[in-house]
Structures are given as structure tokens and as C-alpha cells.
Specification:
By secondary structure, this protein is an alpha+beta fold. Helix content is 51%, strand content 15%. It has six helices and six strands, in the order ααβααβββαββα. The strands form two sheets. It has a four-stranded mixed beta sheet, with helices on both faces. Strand 3 and strand 4 form a beta hairpin. The termini are far apart.
């Protein structure tokens, strides 16, 4: 009887570990609208490769009104939309942050260092990457035309998706 309880406990522990490991994916899949901060682009790349989708990275910084506008009016609604979640993985990188970030190659980095290595100095910037960290479409720089921004964003997402799925 004790052996059966121990086996049951082992299965329960294993299940708990699996559920804990997968919890972040459930949060993103729930469509709560928030674009998550990038933490592990190498792991995101594996997911992107398996799903055959690009990774959209928005470079931002605190107190940037244009960044807030892009997030609130474009990226967050897309993140809540199941159709977009099926087409792209979205992440944010704070260009002024020393927060830890694992880059596409698996190397230790910070948000600031990754932004500098990506050639990003101004914000907002949206870039689309493949699972190797290669840029798939022309970066979307700044925010000058709210009337056309969604179209520009869609064009880049669709181009990146077409390149991956060719």
C-alpha cells in the first residue's frame, strides 16, 4: 500500500513540475492582452520554430508615450486576438533595462545590451525575427501615422510569416 502511495506521489510531483514549467505559456495563450517582457528568446525561438511563426519584438522604454500608444492601440489588441497569437509570438524589450535576457543563441545578455546589439537606439521599434534571430522584415521605426500603423504592422507580420512558411 505504501508503494502505491509513493508511485502516486511521484506522478503528482511530476505533473506539478510540468504544470509549473508550462504556466507561462498558458498565461500568454490566455489572451490577456499584455505583451510579455522578453526573458528567454532561445526558448521562444524553439516555440516559434515548432509553430512555424515569427517572433515580434517591440523595443520600448518607460515613459515613452509613443510606445504606450503602440502597445495599447495595436499590440495588446493583437495579443488578445487568437488569430494573431496563431501567427506571431510577441515580446517586449526595454532598451534602458539591465534585466536579464537570454538571447537567440542562448547567451546571457540584458535588455539594454540586446537592444544595442540589434542597432536599436530610439523607440518604439518593432522587429520580426525567425527562430535563428535573423530579421525577417524591415523594422517598423517610430510612430508617426496612427491611421496606417496597423497596416504597416500587418504587412511586416504577413511577410515574416510567409518567409517562415515557404
Amino acid at each position: 500500500m505504501k508503494v502505491k502511495n509513493m508511485v502516486g506521489l511521484g506522478k503528482a510531483t511530476l505533473l506539478a513540475l510540468i504544470l509549473t514549467w508550462m504556466a507561462p505559456a498558458w498565461c500568454y495563450a490566455a489572451g490577456n492582452g499584455e505583451v510579455p517582457l522578453a526573458r528567454d528568446l532561445a526558448l521562444d525561438a524553439k516555440t516559434a520554430e515548432a509553430r512555424r511563426v515569427p517572433i515580434l519584438v517591440m523595443f520600448t522604454r518607460p515613459n515613452c508615450p509613443f510606445c504606450a500608444h503602440v502597445l495599447k492601440d495595436f499590440l495588446e489588441p493583437m495579443q488578445r486576438n487568437a488569430e494573431y497569437r496563431a501567427k506571431v509570438i510577441m515580446r517586449k524589450v526595454n532598451i534602458s533595462s539591465q534585466a536579464k535576457l537570454r538571447d537567440f543563441s542562448g547567451g546571457a545578455n540584458t535588455h539594454r545590451e540586446f537592444a544595442l546589439e540589434s542597432g536599436v537606439g530610439m523607440v518604439p521599434v518593432v522587429m520580426l525575427y525567425d527562430s535563428w534571430g535573423e530579421v525577417l522584415a524591415e523594422p517598423l521605426l517610430g510612430f508617426s501615422s496612427p491611421d496606417y500603423y496597423g497596416d504597416f504592422l500587418d504587412q511586416r507580420i504577413n511577410l515574416a510569416l510567409a518567409k517562415i512558411r515557404k
